[in-house]
Amino acid sequence: MPKTIEAKSTPMNKAAFHIFPEYCKGCGLCKEKCPNDVLRWSHSLGVYGTPIVEPKDEESCIACLICEMVCPDAAIFIEKYPKVKNK
Ligand code: SF4
Ligand code: SF4
After folding, report:
1. In what order do the strands lie in the sheet with 15-19?
2. For residue 87, what pLDDT band results from cuts at 50, 70 and 90?
3. Domain holding 46: CATH number?
């Protein structure tokens, strides 16, 4: 049976932040490259027993996807919420 990889998910204002601890090696690149300094080290551990990242708050993420793009291990998925059109 295929293995299920579970994400830790945090809902934010513009997107949901998903991280897959089994892929995160704790390199800190996402944290370093985030333009709004949204990410911090979490108490949860990743694949090598090092901390994974988590958002500090719900407001400061602009859903730019940089963290997702720079992660060498594809451990982050930013799920942008659909835009609601005003009629
Ligand atoms: S999507 Fe952009 S603003 Fe949000 S946590 Fe990632 S790098 Fe930071
Ligand atoms: S860039 Fe990827 S592997 Fe490195 S700390 Fe961030 S989520 Fe983990």
Report:
1. 8-11, 15-19, 76-80
2. low
3. 3.30.70.20
Question: Token pair for residue 79?
Answer: 């799920």
Mean pLDDT of 4-27: 96
71 CA from centroid of ligand 2 (Å): 5
Does the residue 11 lie in any domain? no
Question: What is the pTM (predicted TM-score) of this model?
Answer: 0.93
56 in a domain, yes or no? yes
Q: Does residue 36 belong to any structural domain of this protein?
A: yes
The number of distinct structural domains making up the chain is 1
Contacts of 40 (CB under 8 A, 6+ apart): 31, 53, 54, 55, 56
- Report whether residue 52 contacts ligand 1, using a CB cutoff of 6 Å: no
With respect to residue 75, please indicate whether it lies within any of the assigned structural domains.
yes
